[in-house]
Amino acid sequence: MLPVIALVGRPNVGKSTLFNAMTRSRDALVADMPGVTRDRHYGVCRTGARPFVVVDTGGLSGVEEGLDALTAQQVRFAIEEAQVLVFVVDARDGLMPQDRHILDELRRSGKPIIAAVNKTDGLDEQNALAEFAGFGIAITLPLSAAHNRGTEDLIAAALPLLPEDVHEELAPDDAGIRVAIVGRPNAGKSTLINRLLGEDRLIVSDVAGTTRDPIRVPLERDGKRYTLIDTAGVRRKARVEEGVEKFSVIKTLQSMAAAQVVVVMIDARENLADQDLTLIGHAIDEGRALVIAVNKWDGMDTYQREQCQRALERRLVFVNWAKQVFISALHGSGLRELMRAIVRAHTSATRELGSSDLTRTLERAYEGYQPPLVRGHAPKLRFAHPGGSNPPTIVIHGSRTKHIAPAYRRYLENFFRQRYKLEGTPIRIDFRDGE
Ligand code: GDP
Ligand code: GDP
After folding, report:
1. Domains plus CATH for the chain?
2. Tell me, what's the ipTM?
C-alpha cells in the first residue's frame, strides 16, 4: 500500500509549489489529454526510490475559526492518514508565531516531522536554517520549491521514516485480475460489491478488517477469477451509514495503485461532478486500465437515459477509449457486461507488443502523417520497442522529439491503439533522442 506524506504549513509558504514539483513526473501521461482534471491536493510522487501519496493540506493558519476550522478539519484528517509530516516554512518571512501553533499541532500527532525551509533561493542557506533551529526538528532542510532545488534531498530524507514496505505478496496470477471499485459517496460501490460477492461474503471479510489497509477479496464469476481491492472505507460503509466526509481520496489512490483495472462508478441520476472527472484523472495518472460503470440505470426512462449518455459522451471525450457500461448494482443488471469490460481492459493493458511490429506500425503512422517542421527541421522517428505493460508503454527513438506537439502524440497514440485494439487502457509513449 502506498505510504502517505503530508505537506503542512501556513498559507503562501510554497506547499502547492512543492506538491507540483513532487508530482510532476505524472504529468507525462495526462499532460496531453485535454479534459483531465487534476487534483490540486492529492498526487503520487514517483521520483524517489519508492512511490508515495503526497497530500497538499492547503494550509493551516494556526488560529482557526469559522470556515477555517472546517478546512482545519480536513488538514487533520490528512495528518491522521500520513506517516510522515513535512512542515513547510518560509525563509523570507522567518519564524512566525503561527508556525509555532502549527508545529504544536503536528507534534501532538506523534509522527515524524521534517522541516522544509522554503524560498532559500538567493538567501544564505545556513542563516536561513539557523533561524528555525529553535524548533528542535532534527531534520531541517533548505528548499527552493520554485526552482526545484532540494526536493530530491527532501524525498530522500523522508523515505527512511516511512514504515517498512510490507511487500505484500503480489497476488499470484491465478488469483486473477486485481480490480478497484472507486467512486463518489453513494455512487453504489458497496451495493455493487455486495451484489458481486453475496451479502454474507462481505460481512465475513469485514470481521478480520480492523486494519485500515485495503483488503483483497477473491471473486469468481463465469469461470474467471478476480481480486477485488476493497477499501476499508467501502467496507465500513457497508456496516454503518456514514457521512460524505468519510470519502477518502487517499484510500482511493492507494487502492488504484494496488489494482490493475479501476472501475469508476458514476451515479446516472446525478450530474457528472468534477470529483468524478478527478477520479478518472487519477486512474489515468496511475496508468490503470479503466472501466466506467454508470450505475442506477434502473428506473430511468428513455429520455433520461439519452440525456445522460449524451452528457457522458461530451464530457468524457478525453477517455473515449474507456468502455462505459450501464448497470444497476441494486438489481444486478449489466454486471456480465461489466465483468467482460474489465477482462477486456485487462487484456489490453497487459498485451505484449513486439519491437519489430511496433516499429513497422510506427513507420506506417509516420508515412501517413509527419510531425510538423520545427525551424525547418522535422522531428524524426526511427524505431520503437515495448517499455512495459499496464499501461502499455511504447518507447520511440528519434531526434528532436521534444518538439513533438501534443496533437501528434495523440495521433500516434490513436494509431497504436487501433492497430493493437487497446481498448480500456491508457497508453504511454516515451520519446527518446539519439540511439
Ligand atoms: P502555498 O499557499 O503554501 O501552497 O504556497 P504556494 O505554493 O502557492 O506559493 C506561494 C508563493 O510563493 C507563490 O507566489 C510562489 O511562486 C512562491 N514560492 C513558492 N516557492 C518558492 C521558492 O522556492 N522561492 C521563491 N522565491 N518563491 C517561492
Ligand atoms: P457507496 O457510497 O458508493 O458505497 O454507495 P452505496 O452502495 O451505499 O449506495 C448508495 C445508495 O444508492 C443506497 O441507498 C443504495 O441502495 C442506492 N443504490 C445503489 N445502487 C443502486 C442502483 O443500481 N439503483 C438504485 N436505484 N439505487 C442504487
Report:
1. 4-161 (3.40.50.300), 177-350 (3.40.50.300), 355-433 (3.30.300.20)
2. 0.86
